[in-house]
Amino acid sequence: MRIPIESYTLKNGLFVTLSEDHTVPLVAVNLWYHVGSANEKEGRTGFAHLFEHMLFQGSAHVGANEHFELIQRAGGTLNGSTWLERTNYFETVPSNQLALALWLEADRMGALLPAMTQQKLDTQRDVVKNERRWSVDNQPYGTTLEKLQELVFPRTHPFHHSLIGSMEDLSQASLDDVAEFFATYYAPDNAVLTICGDFEEGEARALVNEYFGDIPRGKKRITRPDMSVPPHFTSPELIRIPDNVGLRRVFVATRTPPFGSGDFYAASICAAILGSGKSSRLFKKLVREQQIAADVSAFTLDLAKGSDVFVADVTAKPEVSENALVEAVDNEIDSLVTDGVTDAEVNRAAALVTTELIKALETASERADRISMFATYFGDPALVNEQASKYGEVTAKTVSAFARKYLARERRSRLLYVPKDEVVEMQP
Amino acid sequence: MKSWKCNRDTMLTEKRPPASAPRPYRFPAFERGTLPNGSRLIVCPIPKLPLATLMAVTNAGAGKDPNGREGTARLTAKLLVEGTRRWSGAQLAEQFEGIGTSLDSGADWDSATARVTFLTEHFDRVSELLGEVLLGPTFPERELQRLKSERVADLLQIESEPRGLADEAFESFLYTADSRFSIPSGGSKSSVPAISLGDVTAFHAQTYTPENTTFIVAGDLQYGRVYKKFCSALADWTRRSSAADTRPNAVAGSRRRGKLIEKADAPQSELRIGHAGLPRKNPDYFPVVVMNAILGGLFGSRINLNLREAHGYTYGASSYFDWRKDVGPFVISTAVATEVTGAALKEVFLEIDKIREERVSAAELSLARDYLDGVFPIRYETTAAVASALSNLVVQELDVDYFDSYRERIRAVSAEDVLNAARDHLHPNKLQTLVVGNVSAVREQLAELEVGELADAT
Question: How many CA atoms lie within 13 A of A418 on its CB side?
Answer without folding.
Answer: 20
